[in-house]
Design goal:
The complex is a heterodimer. In chain A, strand 4 and strand 5 form a beta hairpin. By secondary structure, chain A is an alpha/beta fold. Chain A is built from eight helices and ten strands. In chain A, helix 7 packs across helix 8. In chain B, 83% of the residues lie in helices and 0% in strands. Chain B is built from eleven helices and no strands. Classes of the chains: A alpha/beta, B mainly alpha. Chains A and B meet through strand 6 of A and helix 7 and helix 8 of B.
């Protein structure tokens, strides 16, 4: 660890040319390799913009974005992404959906046809690890919302990305399914040690999962608070009912409240 | 009889009832066959002219099919171009809409001047009248790709071509096959119009001659032949659509 894996320095981003909407301004943050980071903030504060900047889908108007020591000038190719909407392709089976990134990313792209069996086995193992064993041949629309979201996580992880970007991935799920998936992502990250940036507006989710939580201000977004979460790992869902946990959530809550009213 | 059986039987009963009512009305009010022939008289005419009707039907089918195939090729290519480039879309859309607004009957005389009386005006009219819905639908299918899916692929380093083949094309297929049902019916209208005005063959031409001879039963017999052919072509494209894009018709597919 130690060295910054992702570093945004005084980043400014504007949507829509001259006189457009200022999405983020003076945004500075660093993430170490293998760290689980959560970004919280009021809605419309530029959290998703932060994700696009860090993956090279958008480029800043001012400031620099560095990933893995390189200034970002094109999509980074080391990222997996999952969104609130599972966005699985309905004409592909769940298994084929999960194999999709391998059809794009080298070296898998040129190997996929030859070593199809090995890759299929790998995808099925991944499905099993999120509790979807045997669901590969089903179409996504035959799965429930929670199952689709699990499959979407598998698609984001199949090519073993060093960086996982999660944009409110559990936002549309019911409370029980959401907590189940927290544990799924917790275990996957503990086992594989990839870096995660989780964008969310659920403070409990952020505190339960992350090593560090960044609070963003209302638009134009910038970081107004940074909080290390020192709760010991592995964390059990029980920890969310402990007083320390509640204290941290409270503290973050007051930052967000300040950000919403514009006083911080 | 269960409700399901009743529903399955209903189309046949209603169609039969329609013709029975027609027959009864003709006999009851003594309507002259010169004004409205009864279904029996039409049936007789169909039998009498069966060789001509079959020959001209096949000709019309060929014209329609040729124009339709051209429309599919051109419509698909044009739709992909429109859907993947905002500039092409903005530039050509007004032209397309303007062109589509012209009633195609008005184009037939020009085609006759260019190509003479024959099969070419019929094929071209069928093509011109039917490509527009294909273009619009394919372009719509491409334009409605979820931005998140695009982000997922772009973040992996996917090229524009990758996104087009992995997402864009499959995504627009239900729109494409849906438009075929409309296009085949339009192509059929186009070829019959052109045959009526500028051909020596085809059901349209047969009708033009029957009408000049005041052969009203033959006129109606041709209409029935047109209806049967039209329904058949629609059914075939609808069947192809269902086969090719089952995933887009989820409820039926999941049950089956």
């Amino acid at each position: 660890m130690g060295e910054a894996f992702i570093a945004l320095d005084k980043v400014q981003h504007v949507y829509g040319g001259e006189g457009g909407v200022l999405a983020v301004e003076d945004l500075t943050l660093t993430v170490r390799e293998g760290e689980f980071v959560a970004v919280v903030g009021p809605s419309g504060c530029g959290k998703s913009t932060l994700m696009k900047l860090a993956t090279g889908l958008q480029f800043p108007r001012a400031g620099t974005v560095r990933v893995d020591g390189q200034a970002v000038s094109k999509p980074v190719k080391i990222a997996g992404m999952a969104f609130q909407n599972p966005t699985l392709l309905p004409w592909r089976t769940t298994l084929d959906n999960i194999l999709l990134p391998l059809e794009i990313v080298e070296p898998h792209r040129s190997r996929l046809r030859r070593e199809k069996a090995a890759y299929t086995e790998k995808a099925e193992a991944l499905l099993a690890s999120v509790g979807l064993a045997g669901f590969g041949p089903k179409f996504p629309w035959q799965l429930s919302g929670g199952m689709q979201q699990r499959a979407s996580l598998c698609r984001a992880l199949i090519h073993e990305p060093r960086l996982l970007m999660l944009d409110e991935p559990f936002g549309a799920l019911d409370a029980f399914t959401r907590e189940e998936l927290w544990c799924v992502i917790r275990d996957l990250q503990a086992a594989r040690k990839f870096t995660v940036i989780l964008v969310t507006h659920d403070l409990r989710e952020a505190v339960f999962l992350a090593d560090k939580v960044f609070c963003m201000s209302a638009r134009p977004g910038r970081i107004i608070a940074e909080r290390e979460i020192t709760l010991p790992r592995p964390r059990d869902l029980e920890v969310t009912y402990s007083p320390e946990f509640a204290d941290i959530v409270h503290e973050l809550r007051s930052h967000i409240k300040g950000a919403r009213s514009g006083v911080h | 009889m269960t409700n399901k059986q009743k529903i399955a039987l209903a189309p046949w009963v209603f169609t039969l009832g329609f013709f029975l009512l027609w027959e009864a009305a003709c006999r009851l009010f003594g309507i002259s066959s010169f004004v409205l022939p009864s279904p029996m008289q039409i049936g007789a005419a169909m039998w009498e002219y069966r060789t001509q009707l079959t020959f001209h039907s096949f000709h019309t089918l060929w014209m329609t099919f040729a124009g339709f195939v051209l429309a599919v090729i051109f419509g698909l290519a044009m739709g992909l171009a429109l859907g993947s480039s905002k500039i092409v879309h903005a530039g050509t859309y007004p032209l397309l809409v303007g062109f589509n607004a012209i009633p195609k009957v008005a184009v037939v005389p020009i085609l006759v001047i260019w190509f003479g009386v024959g099969w070419l005006p019929a094929v071209l009219t069928a093509f011109l009248i039917s490509f527009f819905p294909i273009v619009v639908n394919v372009a719509t299918g491409l334009a409605t790709i979820e931005p998140e899916v695009e982000d997922v692929l772009k973040a992996l380093g996917a090229s524009k071509l990758d996104i087009m083949t992995k997402v864009g094309l499959p995504r627009s297929m239900p729109y494409f096959f849906g438009s075929l049902k409309v296009a085949i019916t339009l192509a059929y209208v186009g070829s019959v119009i052109a045959e009526y005005n500028a051909s020596k063959f085809g059901i349209g031409n047969l009708m033009a001659r029957a009408s000049a001879d005041f052969n009203v039963p033959l006129l109606f017999a041709s209409l029935i032949a047109l209806a049967v052919l039209g329904v058949a072509m629609y059914a075939i494209t609808a069947w192809v659509e269902k086969r090719m894009t089952g995933w887009a018709q989820r409820s039926g597919f999941a049950a089956g």
